[in-house]
Amino acid sequence: MLKKIFPKKKKGVTETMLGSLIAIFVVLVVTFTAVVDLQTFYINLQLHQVDRQASLRMETDGGLTEDTKQYIIDSLSKMKGFDASRLKIKASNTADNHSPNPTDDKNYANYGEPISLALTYNYTPTKHHLIGWTQVTTEKGNVIPITVHWDTTSKGIRTVTH
Fold first, then answer.
1. Among residues 128, 130, 142, 153, which one has the fewest Cβ atoms lying within 10 Å of its Cβ?
2. pLDDT number for residue 97
3. pLDDT tops 70 at residue 159
4. Which segments cross the bilayer (predicted)?
5. CA–CA gap between residue 32 and residue 41 (Å, rounded)
6. Do 113 and 102 form a contact (C-beta atoms < 8 A)?
């Protein structure tokens, strides 16, 4: 009775099934990457990388300098389709309205004080729609803000001369 329920497998069934599963997986991956906009993942990864590097610079400087701000914009401008007007940089300590004399600067953090940097990029995704199996239409979607945030402490030591 068990032999009727579970018949003996024929030779080669496993290889055929494995090949079919691999082919189905490949077709699904190709279809997924063709339909889904993966640019948001790449933007997020790039923002994390640049945010970390800029935060390390802010640690040593005690805040966001113009050089670091320019580094952020230059690094992100290497991304495909980057628009600097869509980038918002928010830092806890900035060089805005600071004195030319670095010892008089009140906007920078002293050693051990917390500093933070948040980068927000407003991305407009492209939505893809399949029509049958042969045509793909695209349309612009709503703006998606992609934000990364980094908190650290200042390592900058200011020397004061008397």
1. 142
2. 44
3. no
4. 21-43
5. 14
6. no
